[in-house]
Design a protein that fits this description.
The protein has about 110 residues and is an alpha/beta fold. Helices cover about 30% and strands about 15% of the residues. The protein has one domain (about 10-100). α1 links the parallel β1 (about 10-15) and β2. The longest helix is centred in the middle third of the chain and has 11 residues, at about 70-80.
């Protein structure tokens, strides 16, 4: 019986995408992980900025952006047997969401740090 992927050793590659990386070729982002022999690539997905098109008031899509960078990286990585973990920056207090619902945003976004 095959060992599940999460029980095997992981070689994680976790660079933070910069705003200008929204224009990068998703293949290049997966190539970086493969070059370093990583079998898991962490990719910025959302939070302060979204690396995909979004209509949510509380997120801003990275501009310029070619399509859905997160989904493209996910598909290419899976084709190469590289796992993908979405990185969400949820500690960022977004001005638009706190202005719209100040009490709710304070209760949900300002949780105590441990």
């Amino acid at each position: 019986m095959s060992i599940p992927w999460w029980e095997k050793p992981l070689r994680v590659y976790q660079p933070n995408l910069r705003l200008i990386d929204g224009m990068k070729d998703p293949k290049e982002l997966v190539d970086e992980a493969q070059y370093l022999s990583a079998n898991l690539r962490v990719v910025n997905a959302g939070g302060a900025f979204a690396f995909y098109n979004t209509n949510l008031d509380c997120q801003v899509a990275v501009s310029p952006l070619n399509g859905d960078l997160f989904d493209d990286v996910l598909q290419i990585a899976h084709d190469r047997d590289i796992r993908v973990v979405a990185r969400l920056e949820v500690s960022v207090k977004l001005k638009r969401s706190t202005t719209a619902t100040p009490t709710g945003a304070t209760q949900t976004m300002m949780a105590p740090r441990y």
